[in-house]
Specification:
Oligomer: single chain
CATH class of the largest domain: Alpha Beta
Strand order of the largest sheet: 5-4-3-2-1-14
Shape: elongated
Strand content: 15-25%
Helix content: 25-40%
Length: 554
């Protein structure tokens, strides 16, 4: 059997454009004499449509775009991700389905059974689970079709499982000779390699070919990496689609030749590629061609500026220096030099005069080494936020926020100041990862000046102010945050794994979970997600609560 994968980039609700992309993949598959073309999960509507799936009109008209796709399948079989009305009087009004079409005839649907509701997923809110399993025939072969999560519960691969049964295994037991899995699987660090192992393992154990097709593209903060896979009956990967880009490719399932394309092996490389795609798609799909950000002379804004230049072109990225009385000359010089190296316009709007006027008007003491004034420090950040938002409004530019995860987790940020923006680019990137990104960006030539990379981190909101006066050392802090967020480790596990003192871990976690800091995070712009359990759409905490980490031994 000759199979084509259509790894396409969709936009929520853009039925016309999404349908054109699907038909383009079908037409290319036909030109390549393919028997079967496979498209990702909900690729007609867009997987992250969220509560649009509850809209009665969307539900009622769910299958209308499918008619054009059916007409385009002359001489070929296509499997296409869609939602469809359940027709039920109780329960949810939609199924999450794979439509199976052959030679301009809709043969039927394979409906999703396992509905995830962890991290960024909320499928039970929108979809009715299916209890049926059946096969489709193509020539003399039987096809089993699984929708995303239905493939992800292999008891021989996962040590811990969320569900008691395995729909993909049931399809294999029914006699499937080829297993098709359509997916909208978001990017997380390390996940591409895990998928590859999962597909290879299942193909080898079942002794049948597996076609695993994944969505690609950014939608709000969720980034789909693609990286679709085809494995032969021996578990060898015979097609590996490149990540973070659209790809239509064809392979014979009886091939025994390994695909020479390989996945990136470095998390920093994949984080970089994910963030560039996330910026590009967020801007493009929301109608922005230009961006603006505040350039401080620090590493966070330097990395964001560089990523933005790669995503939409340096001529389209405006960086704004906004020095205050406490800004160092080196920060201004470093910002100018970064702009020169990137070919990015850099302008200056000093906030010193406005700051002095407001200090007097509000009768606030100026910050000093002896007397820290949080209100006066935050005033500087809010003045900068006002300038950036005004430029964004006046010039139609997407404002990029530059705060990193380590700072946001501990509330080391200013509401309506540095948290302003239309997109938080590195809001899920730990500070140590920001440094790793800077080094990655400098791997061939020094794009980001070494003086920025080696500078002692400081918000420069007061004389002699540095981050390490308010935060634990980033290398220690990030180890705690990584264990807590990404591995869901308990406080005791963090203490034991990291060799930390209990008081150190308790203090960090209480800062993370404080109502004041959750209140700040609730008002952040959409954050590009690159890890599991990120600060963003997948993390849900109340603002109003009295939970505390008083003891770590329960």
């Amino acid at each position: 059997m000759r199979v084509t994968i259509g790894q396409i980039n969709t936009t929520n609700g853009d039925f016309e454009s999404n349908t054109k992309s699907i038909i383009r993949a079908i037409e290319q598959a036909r030109r390549e004499d393919s028997n079967l073309v496979v498209l990702p999960e909900t690729c007609i509507q867009g997987y992250t449509s969220l509560d649009w799936f509850l809209d009665r009109e969307v539900q009622r008209c769910a299958l209308e775009p499918l008619q054009k796709i059916v007409e385009a399948t002359k001489g070929i079989t296509a499997i296409v991700g869609t939602v469809r009305p359940s027709g039920l009087t109780t329960g949810r009004r939609l199924y999450n389905s794979a439509a199976v079409i052959r030679n301009q005839e809709l043969l039927g649907f394979a409906d999703k059974t396992l509905l995830p509701e962890y991290d960024v997923f909320d499928d039970p809110r929108y979809f009715q689970p299916s209890s049926e399993r059946h096969l489709f025939t193509l020539g003399d072969q039987k096809l089993g079709v699984a929708v995303c999560e239905d493939f992800w519960n292999d008891k021989t691969f996962w040590r811990e499982r969320l569900y008691t049964h395995d729909p993909a295994d049931e399809l294999i037991e029914l006699g499937a000779e080829v297993l098709i899995s359509i997916n909208a699987s978001p990017f997380n660090k390390g996940k591409m390699g895990q998928r590859c192992s999962m597909v290879s393992h299942r193909a080898m154990m079942a002794k049948i070919p597996i076609v695993f097709v994944n969505l690609v593209g950014g939608n709000d903060g969720i980034i789909f990496d693609g990286a679709s896979i085809v494995a032969n009956a021996r578990g060898k990967i015979i097609l590996q689609a490149p990540p973070f880009e659209e790809f239509i490719g064809t392979v014979d399932l009886d091939s025994d030749e390994a695909d020479k394309r390989c996945l990136p092996g470095d998390d920093i490389e994949t984080i970089h590629d994910a963030l560039v795609l996330g910026i590009r798609d967020y801007a493009r799909k929301n109608g922005f061609t230009r961006a603006v950000l505040g350039l401080s002379g620090g590493i966070d804004s330097a990395v964001v500026a560089t990523l933005a230049c790669q995503a939409i072109g340096p001529e389209n990225v405006l960086s704004v220096m906004m020095p205050s009385p406490y800004s160092s000359r080196s920060s201004i010089d470093d910002s100018v030099e970064l702009g020169r190296r990137l070919g990015m316009p850099v302008i200056e709007h000093s906030i010193s005069d406005a700051y002095e006027v407001l200090l007097k008007q509000l009768k606030l003491p100026a910050p000093s080494i002896e007397n820290r004034s949080t209100a006066a420090e935050n005033l500087q950040s809010r003045l900068r936020g006002n300038i950036l938002m005004t430029i964004s409004n006046a010039e139609g530019r997407l404002l990029l926020s530059t705060g990193n995860k380590s700072e946001l987790a501990l509330g080391y940020c200013t509401l309506y100041g540095d948290t302003n923006g239309g997109l938080a680019v590195i809001g899920d990137v730990l500070k140590t990862e920001v440094y790793a990104l800077a080094n990655y960006l400098n791997r061939s030539s020094e794009v980001i000046p070494r003086s920025i990379v080696e500078k002692r981190p400081s918000a420069e909101l007061a004389p002699g102010q540095f981050d390490d006066q308010s935060l634990p050392p980033y290398d220690q802090l990030d180890r705690v945050l990584r264990l807590y967020f990404e591995q869901k480790a308990t406080p005791n596990e963090i203490v034991e794994t990291g060799g930390f003192e209990q008081g150190f871990v308790r203090d960090i976690l209480n800062r993370v979970e404080s109502p004041a800091n959750e209140f700040k995070r609730r008002q952040l712009p959409p954050t590009l997600i690159i890890s599991r359990n990120a600060i963003g759409i997948g993390r849900r905490r109340p603002v109003t609560h009295h939970y505390k980490r008083e003891r770590l031994n329960c």
